[in-house]
Design a protein that fits this description.
The protein has helices spanning 2-12, 27-32, 41-56, 61-70, and strands at 74-77, 89-96, 100-111, 114-126. The chain has 156 residues and is an alpha+beta fold. It has a four-stranded antiparallel β-sheet. It has one domain (25-139). The radius of gyration is 20 Å and the shape is elongated.
Amino acid sequence: MKLIALGFALIAAGCAMGPTNPGPETLADLEAAYDWQYEPGQKLNADWATGVQGILGDLSRPKAIEAIEAAGFECMYGEAHEDYPDPMAVCTRGFATRSCQMDWEISSTADKGMVTWVDGAFRRDCVGLESDWPDQVKSAIDDQLAPMTPPVAPKS
């Protein structure tokens, strides 16, 4: 009885994965599932990669690119070749809060119009170094160059 109650508690908390809760269905759902600024970077990176693979891995190349672009990513493509007509795509999206710059990446290859490989990566550069992921980065954000309060409009 306790195991059944625990299973229902996990499902209610959104922790169980499986046929009844397969995970996010879109990249927007995947993005909404996490607090990208505060959760541990290693977990976010792993969950992003797993989620991207689950969402895009079985799609046709056009459907995958459509889903990626619908989520606000911009893509760059490698050079096509007669032996490899579907070049690699590297798609990126960034978002900044007052404390962190966060960047997501999706890389994919295709063959004969179907995705053959897809992976995701997450990076974060925050004020201070302790929340940076995957490496600590000394950047302008660490010097807190942004004003702490918004500038006041001049009086007319």
